[in-house]
Design a protein that fits this description.
188 residues; alpha/beta; Rossmann fold; six-stranded mixed sheet
């Protein structure tokens, strides 16, 4: 394993202690599986992957390296957390997509779906532009925390209702550069 990846056993972020929850190896294996699923479903369709900034940029980057189909990429930025560990309950659109998606196969790529508020908003916004199809691909899903109905077509990992950090996920903008996913260490 290369030492160029930032993957300590434990990390302290904003005064909270975190321990490893999902290893880099587990993530890499799941990226390969998701890439294969996407290749099969979208063969010959040239989909556009729309990453939700900031959290999904690492997941989308790795995912793109595991698909072999012709595809495009764009980004959208939303905010529903600010610097908090819990969603504010309101979605603010900070960056719109640039691509024309009418008649296109769209794959929304998110780092985590917990309440489903942001993804519910995103799917509705994308459907307003008459795409051929809309699918959702999320790295993590907190199924027990989901309050808004949203169809998740590709899920990396289902996780409990816990605060996670790393691999693009942040705590007040810190910790995104960790190459594994960490969870608050409640034993400390």
């Amino acid at each position: 394993m290369s030492s160029s990846f930032y993957q300590p056993d434990t990390v302290t972020c904003n005064g909270e202690n975190f321990k490893i929850f999902i290893t880099k190896e587990q993530i890499d294996e799941r990226m390969n599986q998701l890439g294969n699923q996407l290749d099969k479903k979208y063969e010959g369709k040239k989909p556009i992957f729309i990453g939700i900034l900031n959290g999904a940029f690492i997941f989308l980057s790795d995912l793109m390296r595991h698909v072999s189909i012709d595809c495009e990429v764009d980004f959208m930025k939303l905010s529903s957390y600010g610097d908090k560990k819990v969603s504010s309950g309101e979605v603010t659109e900070l960056k719109h997509i640039d691509a024309k998606i009418e008649g296109r196969h769209v794959i929304l790529v998110e780092d985590i779906v917990d309440t489903g508020l942001s993804m519910n908003y995103m799917v509705k916004r994308i459907k307003e532009n008459d795409p051929a199809s809309v699918a959702v691909c999320t790295l993590l899903h907190k199924k027990v925390a989901t309050k808004y109905e949203v169809q998740l077509d590709f899920v990396g990992f289902e996780i409990p209702d816990a605060f996670v950090l790393g691999y693009g996920l942040d705590y007040a903008q810190l910790g995104r550069n960790l190459s594994q996913i960490y969870v608050i260490d409640k034993d400390e």
